[in-house]
Structures
1.
Amino acid sequence: MPRNRKATVVALISTAAILLGFWLIIRTIGQPTGKPLNTLAPFGQQAQDIQNLTIPVFAVAGVIFVLVMVAVIWMVVRFRAPDDAVEGEHEPAQTHGNTPLEIGWTIVPAVILAVLAVLNVQTLLRLDDTGENPLEVTVAGQQWWWEYRYDLDGDQTPEIVTATQMVMPAGRDVTVKIQSNDVIHSFWIPSLNGKKDAVPGRTHELVFNSDNPGIYEGQCTEFCGLSHGVMRMQVKVLPPAEYDVWIREMTKAPAQPTSAAASRGEALFVGQCARCHEVNGLTPDSTPPFTYSDEPSPDYGVEVDSSLSSKNAPNLTNFMMRQTFAGNLLALWEGDAATAVVAVPGQVPGATPDKVNIKRWLRNPQDVKPMDAENNQGMPNLNLSEDQIDDLTEYLVTLGPSTRPAA
Amino acid sequence: MAITEERPPLELTSGDLPPLEVETLGVFHRPRATHGWASWFTTVDHKKIGIMYGFASFFFLLVGGFEAILIRTQLAVPGNKLLSADLYNQVFTMHGVTMVFLVVMPLAAAFANYLLPLQIGARDVAFPRMNALSLWVWLLGAIFFNTSWFLGGGADGGWFNYAPNSGVVFSPSHGIDFYAVGLLIMGIGSTVSAVNLTVTVLNMRAPGMTLMRMPVFTWMTFIVQVLLVFALPVITVALILLTADRMFGATFFDASAGGDPFLWEHLFWIFGHPEVYIMILPSFGIASEVIPTFSRKPIFGYPFMVGSGIAIGFMGWGVWAHHMFASGMGPISVLAFSLATMFIAVPTGVKILNWMATMYGGRIRFTTAMLFSVGLVAMFTIGGLSGVTHAFAPMDTQQTDTYYIVAHFHYVLFGGALFGLFSGMYFWWPKIFGYFLNEKLGKWHFWLMILGFNLTFGPMHILGLQGMMRRTYTYTEGQGFNGWNLVATIGAYLIAVSILVFMWNVIRSYRQHRANPVNPGPDPWDARSLEWMVPSPTPEHNFDEVPVVEDFDEFWHRKYGHDEQGRPVRIAATEDVVQKGDATDVHLPSPSYWPLVLAAGLPLIGYGLIFNLWWALPGAILLIAGIYGWVLEPSTDPSAGHGHDDDHHHDGDDGDAAALEEPSGDEADTASGDEAGEGAGVASADEPEPAMASASADAEDGGSK
Ligand code: HEM
Ligand SMILES: [Cu+2]
Ligand SMILES: [Cu+2]
């Protein structure tokens, strides 16, 4: 076969192979099922804006990729020295360059990029728009979990403080104000928007707006030490009416426990857990209702500057309103209630708290995620007896709306 | 076009060596050994230094590679318990730092040291003793850094080591102290070497070797040295602040005390982005030597190749914050850096197209060296394109800190930089060691490596886009990461096998060469630049006579002219234009103990800073002894000073126009000017012409060339 023809055939085959590969990948890459962190499956306006930029950019990059690869393959075949090549015969012409050509292939890519730059700038500005009357949620990262504070009446004191699972209404702009209590983290819910770092001493804003009720997974994406890889979170987008229910239930105090086991658990909680965890109104220095204080107590962080420590632990006031705990590693409810897009998971028919998970955590938190409690990073192993664990579990499952199922 | 006949005939003097007279000038006389194992510790020969850089960084490639295998094994399946989170964080940090500072940079330095003087027609670098110092400082710093494994654990903050996670509060082990002090030490070595090579290029070029006649590899290496000279101070400042925070309770990065974690981020990336070009440009240079040679065509668009290299080096300073698009630095900064980053792709693209145009119409021989260079062109294109996709800041907020970024920078650093360096090894191996690497094993190496490489890093694009975060010690069932991670791990093992093939190739080829030596000759590939004019392996004095350069691709033009169609036509047999390497009277710089002594002080001071300041005392003593010894030692072995005169007068008597008109007098000094440059101010009565341009060089190093 003449060289030219052979090269063309090989080039065509490789084009087909590359295109086939592309097709196989593109077919499934945008699917959300089974890929909770997929960046190419937007469920919010901002993520959609990014997607609208991504598609043309990837398309252009893909075309250039195919052109370059195929050209290289073509040349490799076409200009391969024949085995019987003899010096002095059929030597290649010694071209030193071609200035117009080279200026051309400097300018053409620049022009392509300039066109894409317009899209880039538009998208950037759109993402920066905080919208009308946004709901503001303060998000604070610490090793290795996220806290959310809702200041509903704008008096600078949060009415709701919760962790791990953030809740927001569908169809409304939500500005998350991202902060950090220790090292740099990054707050990222790929279905809703890109990520933004949580940096000590700063507040960074990120806007979410989603019309699609659902639960969206997130992951800390700035390396933050030991358990960075499993520092996960969720955002639950509720229909507006459900969101109102959520607000109502979250601003109510949990009822006193009634069963004997739960009462023993409560006492244990005050003794063992309340030095780090808050349950509003439970401990003397947080009288009912809702005087959550994020001031560290005086004997707190003696050696370590409090703004750089992670001694804070998740506020557990309405613990059972969440569907996930332990930095989104363990489900709090069994079955459907763990994933239902509702305000009160306990009201899902057949809802049962996942006591096995709760006990597993209490038995040895390090077993669920690596922490270094000696260095004030994470929850210590409290060496509880099985009886104590049972009692505490009974108490914890009372921490929720009074409509909770009998524990 | 050069016409060989017009050149003055090669005239080689073979002076009789004077009898050895042991005479001690100053405090110590200089070591003499030029052969045997001991000579390696005192050598100032740029070739030996280059070889040592090469072997040492290859050793660290094995270390870093082992760490990579640990990482990939851990991530092969979800929830793996091979490494604890703590150990995993150390392993990925040490892997990154090792590959950047202990492998790619010094491997490029190996080529730079060995080749740069040869390519510009010099006898050595400008400051040979400082060159030895760079090597030892870097090597001892690298070893120091790795001893952290045995002294409480490696650094665990990532190679980017963001504050405040890198502070003592959050990383109480000594790992990050070793990171800070180790990089400071290695930075001293790199700075010294960068200054040295910059001066070498500017001052030591052979007569007629104008800047725009330098080989592209020399050009790219030169740009890298300039980048280093400016980039290293930035990381040095950052590391000193970090050290102060960690060891002396300063609060530069502590927000609660008025410091700012952003300070570290900016300083790190102001260094870090130029650093990525520091790592890739040498390999661009290597590909620009290999592709023309095996295509039998000159590099296409030499001025554009050089210009785009300069442009990249220049623009590289204005894009650092593209590593911080998600950091929250504000929309205007994001916008500016996003646009700047998009356009840095333009000069990069020019290089790819020019390599392709070099191949176009050529007669391509696919040696292993060529395969690696073509592999570089293809793989780097992929990395460059993914780079452009995260130049778009909104897209980057989805991509950053995911495996998509890991894929990107491995395509540029492994598929680009490391492929280029392997290409260079196969290409220059016969020049450096006097025997070929086996081509058949070489091809196995290449194909296994490129297959393993794409299996490892190709799937990471998909994993990253599907949300797999970077720097994670594990992932769980149900995140959709299982399959591709397993593929990536299999690929990593293939890469390991390919490295074993390479090592076997080196050993086997060496054994065969020992059993049955076949010299590859000076010019085994019918190549183009000056290093191929000297015998293989390169004689200690490089050139019998410093060549006078009349053209880009000087050596090629001595062999070939061209006909009306521009096709090459032999005008001289290679044997007639190469040098014999048998000049015996070339006076070479004397070896020295002091660079090693001086360098040995630094890690001791490092241990002192970390554990107990008393340990710094012996380090300081060594350091000061090194400096004094260096200054006071005789510039040269007194008993070896005679050949010079003959040599020099020979040049003069000969009326070699080139030698006289050469502005710098480099040639004369390089060849012979030891006494001329008695740095300590010992005027040399017998030196007729003051060597102005190289005075600085001489001042440092006693004119030992
Ligand atoms: C076409 C040229 C290139 C462009 C447009 C480009 C763009 C980028 C961008 C925007 C990032 C930041 C991504 C992120 O962290 O989210 C990045 C990361 C990176 N790039 Fe490139 N790049 C290019 C070439 C290179 C080259 C030549 C190298 C090295 C040889 C390189 C090495 C890296 C490394 C090491 C990182 C990651 C650093 C880290 O986060 O640890 N890039 N590149
Ligand atoms: Cu993190
Ligand atoms: Cu960069």
2.
Amino acid sequence: MAPAPADSTVLQIRSSDDVVLIRQQVRARAAEAGLGLVDQTKIITAASELARNTLDYGGGGTMAMTMVNDGLRRGIRLVFDDKGPGIADIQQALRDGYTTGNGLGLGLGGAKRLCNEFAIESTVGVGTRITIARWK
Amino acid sequence: MARANTLLSQTVSDNEAVILDEWMQRLRQAGADQGGRINAAELQTQGRDFLSILKRTLGESSDVTGAAFEPLRELLADISRSRAIQGYSPRETALFVFSLKQALFAAVARRKDFSAEQLAQATWEASTMLDELGLHTMDVYQRSREEVIVRQQREIAELSTPVVKLWDGILALPLIGTLDSERTQVVMENLLQSIVDSGADFAIIDITGVPTVDTLTAQHLLKTIAAARLMGADCIISGIRPQIAQTMVHLGVELNVISKATLADAFALALKRLNKTVVTAKTPQAADSKAAG
Ligand SMILES: Nc1ncnc2c1ncn2[C@@H]1O[C@H](COP(=O)(O)OP(=O)(O)OP(=O)(O)O)[C@@H](O)[C@H]1O
Ligand SMILES: [Mg+2]
């Protein structure tokens, strides 16, 4: 896996307090990147979903946060990593209403709809990496 | 590694009373017993306990981080913790250990039987030992302060979610803060209990103060709405800000419940459903003069 860029901040996801902290950090970074209130709320909510999945299904992990700034687009990119069981069928996991826990089964699909960029890499028995980005 | 610290242990056991006196004097000079949080007798007891354990420990070991020093570290942890809770500053807390330095150095310096080399060694050992114990004191202090903060946050979180009665049959729950912690369960149960106790027809859940609504938050809301319905109360959600509304649409969550922009709008709707109307008083002057008289 590619090393994290130099300006990235890595946060641990080990408890639901960490999920709260992640929302606060993402909010601060999104505002710094110049995202408007709606875009901020979208990426924060997506981050909340993925952080909680990382905690609940991935057995905890990390989130790395970097700025997106390539002249045209300004925003933030978030990478969630865990060493959990992995997702066998990604299409199924993305389907609205599909849950193996007690959730609504909307988090993963919802996060995808809330972002400009969304990618899942997952290997059964190895772990899951989900990358999202939101820019203006 | 567990070598007895003979020089220091001799010094402490031969001069315990003098060291204690000098130490207490230093502490008093530094104002350790001021502010009324601890009295001189209490301070004296803490000092005496500390020295008697120190004496015993030095007879066994010189390894401050080792097992022999455990009782001493425990005692310091207790002292440190209680000071953190009482609101002592880090400086005031660390003073307890650091002010022993001068007293101990002085006692070592008075040893006529020590060679110059032994003097230097004993001083050095006293210094490193007390530094280490001082750092330990600070560690515990810091951790205790953090615990205090976490506890206060919890208390605030619980305090900030009262169920309020707006009118006969109308309750409101103004939610503030994050909704995915354990407290959500408590808050929602409170609301349901209040519905039962008051036989309310309407419960207004105001989420103006909720920064994020994700699927977990939505699920908590959905469960509460369903449970309230079973108990004969209708829920109205108010205060969904535009950016939250948009996000909820993208997430695909539907609350299937009446929602109003503000708590006032929701209250007006509930009153209407209960066949109550709010009217402007026809004779405000009369009301005023009555109040004045
Ligand atoms: N990091 C992960 N590791 C392993 N499995 C995952 C991971 N993230 C999601 N999944 C699987 O995908 C399913 C769907 O996830 P999604 O977030 O959409 O729903 P949910 O978490 O079950 O409920 P909701 O997010 O609506 O509260 C999960 O139930 C889980 O089985
Ligand atoms: Mg989820």
